[in-house]
């Protein structure tokens, strides 16, 4: 029999009385929660409450109801109700790991009734087993006590109902009797579930891979049979010995949303063996050894001791920029205007007056020239002037043919929005040479300053990869920026994009739209491009395809529309690291000039990377519409692995050397399917850096 001391301990730790004691009561409670209690308590009219104490009391009342409803939903094995409660309440609000007066947690009830779907939902929400059950004996004793006391209570109520005359008290006793009969059956089912359960089998599979020069990644899968009890945690063990004696370390994983674990702090070049075992309420099952049976922490750079390509580059560039600024501190552009020639002084003063004069404002129409427009958007709204126009300023009204070099220079300036004043001063110094290129670029800087001043913001965003041109001789350079906060702008306001598109009156014909009309028609496509170009890849190792095409004044690179800041690619695996052994194999394959692996070979069938590359190459060839037989002439770039931070790395697949870059007029027999575009190489490099 449960001792009085244990019962007192349980009651002291329980923060709530037992929930509804019958299925009907549970349904009524859940209906209440589905209505008025489901909304957050802070949404109620707090003005009617007197003081913080009453607010807190009301809050606790709602949370009490949600906790009781969770217990009853688990007892009734109602998965939909459990998921609904877990969705609308946090684990803390539900008191997910606080035992009730019977010393049970929701997870205890789910696993002892062998309800795997509810148990998994609770485990993913962070549920734990009751700390009372430190041994099999204590759990068995506790269940036996609950069954016996429930049976005793049923017998007592049955005797009272039989012996008493029909009245109001008798009707209440009959309700209590039905509730206790239901609870008696629940406890018997839990006790039978515990008695019939066995320890789980070993995990069905354990995969071991090299995560870095000091870590290994372990991925495992659930046992094929859990022996009538839900697995609630796993144990990962590692050792330098195949017998696991001595054991170097172990880790218990009780967060089961993702079944993987990274072993950190290992010694590079050392052999490690790993195994994993599963646990349920009956204890730990047998361990499952990993495949492969051991692994050696390493990284491909250890093959020749190569340092990371980008190590120190950002610091070096910052230092170089600082040196350039220091040199320009005492140049003529920072001296008073009286030291400059009179004609130049008048020209610069006129430009500055035009910039800050109250008459400086956004343009409504375009007149054959070069212009800058800035698109700021938030959700489905776009920033417009008070005349419901997209902000546009003039760069040069005599410039009707934008050179690609000038446009690419502008895109580089977009990386230094905060330095426009300094850049403008520096370009002013060289203006005495009367270079048309410098004149144009100085006007670009003036237009940027004007746009920044009119909007009251420095960062104008990312430059769209190509300007918009029309047959009237107008050219629009477009910048895009998403606003995620309630930022304040000057001289502008927000309007829905659809409203702007329907309300604007076009001044051009559909056959020959102006650059502004073209921008308005395609604005959503440009916003989609901007959003996609800021997406990041999920961690992993990727196979990229490098394909270039040249024109008279630029080289363009093939990229996917869904992720235009990355080369065409497919994912090889989730582990981004290439181990030293894998890199040695790739070097050996490259040195023998073997074709890329597209068909299985007997001597490499046990090489996981070889098999992963086979699958990835076939998928990539299908993606870019190249027949698989053509892949025999392709090559893997073997000089380095392209690392993008610690979580993403690339292997490059190259066409034959004569086909890497398609020349002007050269036909490409294998045109990629829809979903691709070509970007100027410099634009792609800037997007990659962002």
From TrEMBL:
Domain of life: Eukaryota
Region (Disordered): 1-25
GO biological process assignments: establishment of mitotic spindle orientation; regulation of establishment of bipolar cell polarity
InterPro entries: ANKFN1, Ankyrin_rpt-contain_sf, FN3_dom, FN3_sf, Ig-like_fold
Any GO CC annotation of this UniProt entry: spindle
First and last residue of the signal peptide: none
SUPFAM superfamilies membership: Ankyrin repeat, Fibronectin type III
Domain Fibronectin type-III, chain residue ranges per copy: 202-299
Protein name: ANKF1 protein
Organism annotation: Oriolus oriolus
């Amino acid at each position: 029999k449960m001792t009085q001391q244990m019962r007192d301990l349980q009651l002291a730790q329980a923060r709530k009385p037992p929930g509804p004691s019958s299925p009907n009561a549970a349904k009524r409670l859940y209906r209440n929660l589905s209505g008025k209690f489901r909304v957050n308590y802070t949404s109620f009219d707090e003005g009617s409450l007197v003081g913080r104490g009453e607010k807190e009391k009301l809050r606790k009342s709602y949370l009490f109801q949600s906790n009781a409803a969770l217990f009853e939903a688990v007892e009734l094995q109602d998965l939909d109700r459990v998921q609904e409660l877990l969705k609308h309440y946090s684990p803390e609000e539900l008191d997910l790991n606080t035992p009730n007066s019977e010393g049970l947690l929701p997870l205890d009830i789910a696993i002892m009734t062998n309800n795997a779907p509810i148990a998994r939902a609770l485990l993913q929400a962070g549920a734990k087993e009751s700390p009372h059950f430190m041994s099999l004996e204590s759990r068995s004793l506790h269940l036996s006590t609950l069954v016996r006391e429930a049976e005793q209570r049923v017998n007592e109520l049955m005797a009272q109902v039989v012996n008493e005359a029909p009245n109001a008290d008798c009707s209440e006793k009959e309700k209590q009797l039905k509730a206790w009969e239901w609870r008696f059956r629940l406890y018997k089912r839990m006790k039978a579930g515990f008695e019939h359960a066995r320890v789980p089998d070993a995990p069905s599979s354990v995969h071991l891979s090299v995560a870095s020069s000091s870590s290994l990644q372990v991925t495992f899968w659930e046992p094929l049979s859990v022996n009538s009890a839900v697995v609630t945690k796993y144990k990962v063990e590692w050792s330098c010995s195949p017998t696991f004696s001595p054991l170097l370390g172990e880790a218990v994983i009780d967060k089961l949303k993702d079944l993987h674990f990274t072993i950190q702090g290992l010694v590079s070049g050392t052999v490690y063996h790993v195994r994993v075992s599963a646990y349920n309420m009956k204890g730990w099952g047998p361990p499952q050894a990993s495949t492969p049976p051991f692994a050696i922490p390493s990284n491909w750079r250890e093959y020749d001791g190569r340092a990371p390509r980008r190590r120190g580059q950002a610091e070096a560039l910052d230092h170089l920029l600082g040196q350039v600024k220091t040199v320009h501190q005492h140049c003529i552009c920072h001296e008073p205007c009286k030291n400059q020639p009179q004609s130049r002084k008048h020209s610069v003063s006129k430009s500055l007056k035009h910039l800050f004069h109250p008459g400086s404002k956004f343009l409504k129409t375009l007149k054959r020239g070069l212009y800058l427009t800035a698109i700021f958007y938030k959700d489905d709204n776009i920033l417009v002037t008070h005349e419901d126009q997209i902000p546009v300023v003039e760069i040069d009204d005599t410039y009707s043919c934008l050179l690609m070099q000038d446009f690419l220079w502008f895109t580089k300036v977009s990386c230094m929005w905060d330095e426009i004043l300094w850049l403008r001063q520096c370009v002013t110094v060289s203006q005495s040479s009367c270079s048309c290129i410098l004149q144009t670029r100085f006007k670009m800087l003036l237009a940027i300053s004007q746009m920044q001043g009119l909007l009251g913001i420095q960062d104008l965003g990312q430059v769209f990869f190509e300007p918009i041109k029309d047959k009237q001789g107008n050219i629009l350079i477009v910048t895009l920026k998403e606003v995620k906060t309630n930022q304040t702008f000057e001289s502008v306001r927000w309007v829905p994009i659809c409203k702007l598109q329907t309300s604007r009156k076009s001044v051009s014909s559909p056959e020959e739209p102006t650059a502004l009309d073209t921008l308005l028609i395609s604005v959503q496509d440009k916003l989609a491009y901007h959003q996609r170009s800021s997406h990041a890849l999920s961690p992993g190792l990727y196979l990229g395809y490098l394909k270039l095409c040249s024109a008279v004044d630029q080289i363009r690179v093939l990229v996917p529309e869904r992720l235009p800041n990355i080369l065409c690619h497919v994912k090889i695996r989730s582990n981004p690291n290439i181990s030293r052994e894998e890199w040695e194999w790739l070097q050996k394959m490259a040195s023998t000039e073997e074709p890329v692996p597209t068909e299985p070979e007997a001597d490499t069938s046990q090489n996981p990377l070889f098999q992963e590359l086979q699958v990835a190459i076939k998928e990539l060839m299908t993606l870019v519409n190249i027949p698989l037989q053509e892949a025999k002439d392709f090559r893997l770039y073997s000089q380095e692995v392209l690392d993008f931070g610690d979580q993403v790395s690339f292997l490059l697949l190259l066409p034959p050397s004569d086909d890497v870059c398609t020349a002007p007029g050269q036909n490409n027999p294998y045109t990629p399917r829809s979903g691709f575009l070509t970007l100027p190489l410099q634009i792609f490099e800037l997007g990659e850096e962002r």
